[in-house]
Amino acid sequence: MDAVRAVAEPRRREILRLVWDEELSAGEIADRFDVTFGAVSQHLKVLRDAGLVTLRRDGKRRFYRADREGMGPLADYLASMWAARLDALAELAEAAEAAEAAERDEKSEGTTQ
């Protein structure tokens, strides 16, 4: 499977996001999902076969990390997609905070009059 088709699946994109900046064990990755360990393991295999993650073994444990170099231009696309989502989330949080502050101000003005 090619890299673009591999990341078309939302759980695989989420796995990539989890291992983007840090190495995680297969168990740590699986703990973050509401599917079986076997399902996550299959997703990891697809990502590995597509060259999107690297695998390091330490005894019985397997550790995964995003292979940004192996992704080529796809790495820049994914990074910008996640950055845009974070920017949108930050904007929503700021708007909610401003709305709460305005509501507090209205309530405090109402009690002083």
UniProtKB/TrEMBL annotation:
One of its GO terms (molecular function) is DNA-binding transcription factor activity. The keyword Nucleotide-binding does not apply. This is Transcriptional regulator. Keywords: DNA-binding, Transcription, Transcription regulation. Residues 1-93 form the HTH arsR-type domain. It comes from the Bacteria. InterPro entries: ArsR-like_HTH (IPR011991), HTH_ArsR_DNA-bd_dom (IPR001845), HTH_MetalResp_TranReg (IPR051081), WH-like_DNA-bd_sf (IPR036388), WH_DNA-bd_sf (IPR036390). Gene3D superfamilies: Winged helix-like DNA-binding domain superfamily/Winged helix DNA-binding domain. Signal peptide: none annotated. The lineage of its organism: Bacteria, Bacillati, Actinomycetota, Actinomycetes, Kitasatosporales. The keyword Transcription applies.
